[in-house]
Design a protein that fits this description.
243 residues, Uracil-DNA Glycosylase, subunit E, alpha/beta, seven-stranded mixed beta sheet, 13% strand
């Protein structure tokens, strides 16, 4: 009943719901196979190094991680910050030089713009949880490599499970593509709600604040994404409360 109500609300909002392959319109054999195979995104118990870890053991595991070569060049890991019971979760790409130095995601000019975006949504920075796909800085701030993202993915998945947010916002192309396991361009990922993992965490995609600083003409589109996020959050929150 809760799922049906949520889908009806999203339909009334005019939000195109991105449904994982095999859920609707699939033949019975494909649907049955989908229930057996692990879903994309969050993986089942026993397949992840971070499964079952609570906050402090998880933070310690990230701090000690040597699963990919990035650990050799880091000053420190960037675990994430914010409320552990946040209703909103913001997921970015990877730490930059200042984040690596301070151990906190989204600082500097991009962080200030993100703070402004969050205030426009309603919750301030202190009311959300902010994390990155990667916990270590790539050299020269280059794009994360697939194997690096895969090494860090268990930690991010566990953070999502622990926070259990009402809505996730993926900022930037790389964060969105990595999180949703797709190669679609950001422009095609915007404007609708995606579902992540077994628990179908709602995800909305928008531009990275650093990109908006370089391309201020795109801020209007980012504002449209924020309006969609705020509207969808309120309706999802009501659906959760009515369940």
């Amino acid at each position: 009943m809760q799922e049906a109500r949520r889908r009806r609300i999203l339909a009334e909002l005019g939000v195109e719901l991105y449904v994982p392959r095999g859920e609707h319109g699939a033949d019975p054999a494909a649907t049955q196979a989908a229930t057996v195979a692990p879903p994309s995104g969050l993986q089942p118990a026993g397949c992840e190094i971070a499964h079952g870890l609570e906050w402090e053991p998880l933070r310690a595991a990230v701090a000690a991680c040597t699963r990919c070569p990035l650990h050799a060049g880091r000053t420190q890991t960037v675990f994430g910050v914010g409320r552990r019971d946040a209703r909103w979760m913001i997921i970015g790409e990877a730490p930059g030089a200042e984040e690596d130095r301070r151990g906190e995601p989204f600082v500097g000019r991009a962080g200030q713009l993100l703070d402004s975006m969050l205030r426009a949504l309603g919750p301030g920075r202190e009311q959300v949880f902010i994390a990155n796909v990667l916990k270590c800085r790539p050299p020269g701030n280059r794009d994360p490599r697939p194997e690096e993202s895969a090494s860090c993915r268990p930690y991010l998945d566990r953070q999502i499970e622990l926070v259990a947010p009402t809505l996730i916002i993926a900022v930037g192309r790389i964060a969105a593509q990595t999180l949703l396991e797709t190669d679609q361009p950001l422009g095609r990922l915007r404007g609708r709600i995606h579902e992540l993992g077994e628990r179908r965490w709602p995800v909305i995609v928008t531009y990275h604040p650093a990109y908006l600083l370089r391309s201020p003409g795109e801020k209007r589109k980012a504002w449209q994404d924020l309006l969609l996020a705020r509207r969808s959050f309120r309706e999802l929150d009501r659906a959760r409360g009515a369940a």
